[in-house]
């Protein structure tokens, strides 16, 4: 019902925009960066070949490897240990105001000549939070009781997520500010799109690999079956 309602609102509003919004014919069209898709890819290839851009792309493609497991797997492991998914979803609600305020605060520190300084400073704290998340997963079954989890447990989880959001947005805003700063204004859209795409890819591929490695790297023991390992899915079912 939720998706149906907002899908209908989306369709109605976009249709109204298409019907009633008129373009201003008096404005002279700005010069297009490229004339077609072929020119766009040629331009992207010429940008990528620049030594500084190539080095930067390699850096941002690998910069987030250190916290990929903590980011991708922590929530799943908490659910596996018995934390209700609904409770974790509710903890995301207090994060919304923080996510709105953080970019406004951080942008003051990334507006200078060296926006990546904020990125560098936030990285060690985000790596340390990975260790804190690992401790949180280990601690979860220790505090579980028949009635669920105590309130102080959720307070700790909420504070951990809040600290994680601060480091995450510090790095995110810094990298966006840097991309905007170094992009050539003449081809700003193409340049920014390229750098932002590489930045997003640098966050997605390590998380995918981390999720794929969870099972092979998890040590399992079988209870009540001597000599039987649970290393594979088939063995665990047996």
Automatic annotation (TrEMBL):
It is found in: Membrane. It comes from the Eukaryota. It holds the Pfam family Acatn. The keyword RNA-binding does not apply. GO terms for biological process: acetyl-CoA transmembrane transport. Coiled coil: none annotated. This is ACATN protein. The lineage of its organism: Eukaryota, Metazoa, Chordata, Craniata, Vertebrata.
């Amino acid at each position: 019902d939720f998706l149906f309602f907002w899908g209908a609102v989306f369709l109605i509003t976009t249709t109204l925009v298409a019907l009633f919004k008129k373009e201003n014919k008096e404005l002279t069209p700005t010069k297009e960066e490229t004339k077609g898709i072929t020119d766009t890819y040629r331009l992207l290839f010429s940008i990528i070949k620049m030594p500084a851009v190539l080095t930067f792309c390699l850096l941002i493609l690998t910069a987030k490897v250190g916290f990929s497991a903590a980011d991708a797997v922590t929530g799943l492991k908490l659910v596996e240990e018995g934390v209700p998914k609904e409770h974790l979803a509710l903890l995301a609600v207090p994060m919304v105001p923080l996510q709105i305020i953080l970019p406004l605060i951080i942008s003051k520190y990334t507006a200078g000549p060296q926006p990546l300084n904020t990125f560098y400073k936030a990285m060690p704290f985000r790596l340390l939070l990975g260790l804190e998340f690992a401790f949180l997963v280990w601690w979860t079954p220790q505090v579980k009781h028949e009635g669920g989890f105590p309130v102080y447990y959720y307070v700790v989880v909420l504070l951990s997520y809040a600290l994680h959001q601060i480091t995450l947005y510090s790095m995110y805003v810094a990298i966006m500010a840097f991309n905007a700063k170094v992009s050539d204004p003449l081809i700003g859209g193409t340049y920014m799109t390229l750098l932002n795409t590489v930045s997003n890819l640098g966050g997605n591929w390590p998380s995918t690999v981390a999720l794929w490695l969870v099972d092979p790297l998890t040590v399992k023991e079988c209870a009540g079956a001597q000599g039987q390992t649970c290393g594979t899915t088939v063995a665990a079912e047996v």
